[in-house]
Automatic annotation (TrEMBL):
One matching Pfam family: SLT_2
Domain Transglycosylase SLT, chain residue ranges per copy: 14-56
Protein's UniProt name: Lytic transglycosylase domain-containing protein
Superkingdom of source: Bacteria
InterPro entries in the record: Lysozyme-like_dom_sf, SLT_2
Naturally occurring in which organism (per UniProt): Actinomadura luzonensis
């Protein structure tokens, strides 16, 4: 959820039409969302776990992450953040408190984070 929507703080659909805190495409949600609400964080995390398991996790996290988002940079970033949190759980709080910037029609704007 950190990589997809900064823990649900970015609340818009993607340019490709992905929705919710885990940014599911509607067809993928129908297959793996287990009847839940695509906008509900708990339902979205459970659906992501369901999808990742179906595509190779935990046996092959790289393969599963690549199925979720076919970008090597995405796969590398998610695994790096996961390793950092595993080494030091306080890293989660640091990531959670990062500021989120988005580009809007009015320019860059801070959405969250320390002021």
């Amino acid at each position: 959820m950190f990589a997809e929507t900064k823990f649900g703080r970015v609340r818009s659909d993607s340019h490709a039409g992905a929705q919710g805190p885990m940014q599911f495409m509607p067809a993928t949600w129908r297959a793996y969302g287990m009847g839940g609400d695509i906008q509900d964080p708990r339902d979205a995390v459970m659906a992501a776990a369901n999808y990742l398991r179906a595509t190779g996790a935990p046996r092959d996290y790289r393969r599963a992450l690549r199925a979720y988002n076919p970008s090597q940079a995405y796969v590398d970033a998610v695994l790096l953040h996961a390793r950092q949190i595993e080494r030091d759980p306080r890293a989660y709080y640091a990531y959670y408190n990062w500021q989120v910037f988005v580009i809007t029609t009015r320019g860059e704007r801070r959405l969250t984070g320390p002021r």
